[in-house]
Every structure is written in structure tokens, then in C-alpha cells.
Design goal:
Length: 239
């Protein structure tokens, strides 16, 4: 792919044409906050935490779904961006019931980590406090809608890596929900292979192992790289 030249935070850099801005920023060692992005899954630009400013545009752009282009002038950590990121995190906390002190992923939660890194120490908005259910119908795992941030990592890993497509979204806005099958109890889904990939990629305590207690759930994402590398090298091609 042809090389393009652009400016990032007042420094002249080069990248590959078609490469995402987020990928380039990672190569440059610039840490960008993300929640919906996960290496090995397709990007959707949903959480908006990786937004950047582009010179000449009043809009903000999600770096994970914005390709690099020749002559781009990019800013990644301006005061405007930092304020927007804190606002997004506050809204995420206000929309559901994220009570960290009693969460099984307290201390290992990506939402909690991003809040701390971005200086979000309070919420200025009214908490919606929705009356959301938990789905404990699965023999191995539990779904807690109160902790879900609708990042769709579970949807994408089940579709793109496992190939089962158990998960999907229904509803709009604050009424959106992750659902199994055709909105049936997770334990009743015939397509679920019980692999646990969705549980491991979930950034919060929304998907957990049954029986996990407060601060006990620590998730591992390394299996994605292992699976994709094996597929690329055809290590498991027995045909």
C-alpha cells in the first residue's frame, strides 16, 4: 500500500493508505481511550472515546473508523476532546446502574479504568436508574444488563470469531438491549456453543462467569490474537 504523510499533534508522520487513524496512533505510541474497539474484531466507532480533531473540520472523528489520508492534520488530546471524553463517560455511568463497589469486575473494568484515566471523578447528569433484569439462565455464565455499555464486542466476537451469532441488539436509544437469539433467555439459545468468548471480551461486568464474587472477575483478551494467528497460518487446517 502507498505511504501517506500527515501531521499528528504538530509532528510530521507517515502511515499506510487505508490504515485506520487509531492503528497509526498506536504505532506512534499515542495512547487513545477506547471501549468498543478490541484488536481482532471489526471496528464500529460506537463508544466515541477515540475521537480526534481534524484541521479544517468542526466535526470530531472516531479514529478507529477514520482512514489516514495524505495531508491530514490530526489532534488527539485537546481540551475540547478531553472534555468530550469525560462527558461520554459520565453519560455511560448515568445511563445504567454501574455501582463499582459491588461489581464482580471492580478493579478490572475497562469503563472504570477509562473514567480514572480521563479524570472523571463525578457525574453531572441525572442517573436514569433503569429497572433492568439479569439473565442467569445459562449454566456457565450470567448477563447483567445493568452493567452493559452496548459496545457490541460480544455481538462481533460471536459472529466474526465463533461464527454462532448468538447475540444482537434490539431497541433504540436508552431502550437498546443486547439479546440472545430472538430475545430469549440465554440458556435457551440453541446456537450458543458455551465457548465463553463473549464473556472474555466484555469490557465491564455485564457478562461474567456464574458464581463470580465482587472484584473476582478478571478477563483475558489474548485468545483473540492466538485464534487469528492460527487461522492465518492454517495451523488447524486438517483437510
Amino acid at each position: 500500500m502507498p505511504v501517506v504523510t500527515l501531521t499528528v499533534n504538530d509532528e510530521l508522520v507517515s502511515g499506510q493508505s487505508g490504515q485506520s487513524l487509531l492503528s497509526l496512533l498506536k504505532e506512534l505510541g499515542i495512547e487513545m481511550p477506547t471501549l468498543c474497539h478490541l484488536e481482532g474484531l471489526s471496528d464500529r466507532g460506537g463508544c466515541r472515546l477515540c475521537m480526534v480533531e481534524l484541521q479544517g473540520s468542526k466535526r470530531l472523528f472516531a479514529a478507529c473508523v477514520t482512514p489516514v489520508q495524505e495531508g491530514m492534520v490530526v489532534y488527539t488530546h485537546t481540551e475540547r476532546l478531553n472534555n468530550y471524553r469525560r462527558m461520554i463517560l459520565e453519560l455511560l455511568f448515568a445511563e445504567r446502574n454501574h455501582v463499582c463497589a459491588v461489581c464482580v469486575q471492580n478493579g478490572h473494568c475497562e469503563l472504570q479504568t477509562q473514567a480514572a484515566k480521563n479524570g472523571m471523578d463525578s457525574v453531572r447528569y441525572d442517573y436514569l436508574v433503569p429497572d433492568l433484569p439479569m439473565d442467569a439462565s445459562h449454566e456457565r455464565y450470567v448477563l447483567d444488563h445493568n452493567r452493559c455499555i452496548l459496545c457490541t464486542r460480544c455481538v462481533r466476537v460471536c459472529d466474526e470469531i465463533e461464527g454462532a451469532h448468538v447475540w444482537d441488539l434490539m431497541g433504540r436509544g436508552v431502550n437498546s438491549r443486547v439479546i440472545a437469539g430472538l430475545n430469549q433467555p440465554w440458556g435457551d439459545s440453541d446456537s450458543c456453543t458455551k465457548c465463553g468468548k463473549c464473556v472474555q471480551v466484555c469490557p465491564t461486568g455485564a457478562l461474567t462467569l456464574r458464581g463470580s464474587t465482587v472484584a473476582e472477575m478478571e478477563k483475558q483478551h489474548d485468545f483473540l490474537k492466538w485464534i487469528l494467528t492460527g487461522r492465518e497460518k492454517k495451523q488447524w487446517d486438517y483437510s
